[in-house]
Design a protein that fits this description.
single chain; 362 residues; alpha/beta; Aspartate Aminotransferase, domain 1; Aspartate Aminotransferase, domain 2; 4-stranded antiparallel β-sheet; 13 helices; 13 strands
């Protein structure tokens, strides 16, 4: 009887609640209004011949590299950041190697690390989800081959200082350090200027969030020019589809659209945090397009809250299964109009459930 590898059976399953997402989607950190109109125009202009050809990635890679201020030998377009994570794991991890993550964080790091049969070393975040630099350094061994850090982190929205990232990279020169900047546009802080100081550093970006292209699945992996050929060997030559490649140039060209959306999202984030503080709801100040708040003390509390919000047409994400996130819910932010709907429903649900007041900020 055919059986999957034992490592596959042991991988923790990731089941995003995609089914039945009817309502205002504030649960997946997506752009709440969608992509630039220029992208839609480009989509409409595609021909049957465009779709019949195998996609050519290199010309668009050169354009993205120029936009980011790196060499095209240092950049690889990927099928979302997920493929970039997978490629790093396949390139640098062998069975028994150690891979390190700080929890809570993005679930796919652990899944791809486990698929490569690495031993995943889990370091809990510090008090109030602070970055545990000393604990991370203490967990690095001669067997450490990959460290993955989301910056800003998901689901907490916390940001790590560049000097801390440099310290980790230097403490583990034989390990690849992934700095996942999926939410860069909402904080404006990047490790790109410092990355050449440490050739073991890789940075990822995505066009799924601020750019509103989650459905096209396109991301960027940036690394040392000496390291990138190894990753390219494992990457399919046609990993990014022709539609995504055709649209990406237009998405990059319309920076006014991105900046307007980001500005409105940051204003919405401030509004939500102010309401949570006034209500006495514990939350963690965020550097991303979402806010994590502790709505209750148990998973049942957060599930009830999420369901009540859904009944009012607002989808938010229960994060109570994450480390130290009991009773926590994550709210995606977007336009002022969408935030008006979120806050109106939030007010109703908090009153209906009689959520107790507590510390407003962590």
């Amino acid at each position: 009887m055919l059986k999957a590898r034992n490592a596959v059976s042991a991988i923790p399953a990731y089941h995003p609640p995609l089914a039945g997402r009817e309502g205002l989607r504030l649960d997946f950190n997506e752009n709440t209004v969608g992509c630039s109109p220029r992208v839609l125009e480009r989509l409409r202009s595609l021909t049957a011949e465009d779709l019949a050809r195998y996609p050519e990635r290199q010309p668009i890679e050169a354009r993205v590299a120029n936009f980011l201020g790196v060499s095209d030998t240092e950049l690889l377009l990927t099928n979302g950041v997920d493929e970039a994570i997978h490629l790093l794991c396949q390139t640098y991890l062998t069975p028994g190697d150690e891979a390190l993550i700080v929890v809570p964080t993005y679930s796919m790091y652990r899944i791809y690390m486990s698929a490569a049969e690495a031993r995943v070393i889990i370091v809990p975040a510090g008090p109030q989800f602070g970055f545990p630099l000393d604990a991370v350094r203490a967990s690095i061994t001669g067997s450490t081959r990959l460290i993955a850090i989301a910056n800003p982190n998901n689901p907490t929205g916390t940001l790590i200082r560049p000097e801390q990232l440099l310290e980790i990279a230097r403490a583990a020169p034989a390990a690849a350090l992934l700095i996942d900047e999926a939410y860069f546009e909402f904080c404006g802080k990047t490790f790109l200027p410092q990355r050449r100081e440490c050739p073991n550093v890789f940075i990822t970006r995505t066009f799924s969030k601020a750019y509103g292209l989650a459905g096209l699945r396109i991301g960027v992996l940036i690394g040392d020019a000496y390291q990138m050929p190894s990753l390219r060997r494992l990457c399919s030559p046609y990993n990014v589809n022709a539609v995504a490649l055709a649209c990406l140039s237009e998405a990059l060209a319309d920076q006014n659209y991105i900046q307007q959306y980001v500005t409105e999202t940051l204003q919405s984030r401030t509004r939500l945090e102010s309401v949570l503080a006034t209500r006495g709801i514990t939350f963690w100040p965020s550097q991303a397009n979402f806010v994590l708040a502790r709505i209750g003390s148990t998973k049942s509390d957060s599930q009830t809250f999420v369901e009540q919000m859904r009944r009012r047409g607002i989808l938010v994400r229960d994060r109570s299964a994450d480390h130290a996130c009991d009773g926590c819910v994550r709210f995606t932010l977007g336009t002022a109009e969408h935030t008006n709907g979120l806050l109106a429903a939030l007010d109703e649900v908090l009153e209906e459930l009689s959520i107790p007041q507590g510390a407003s900020r962590s």
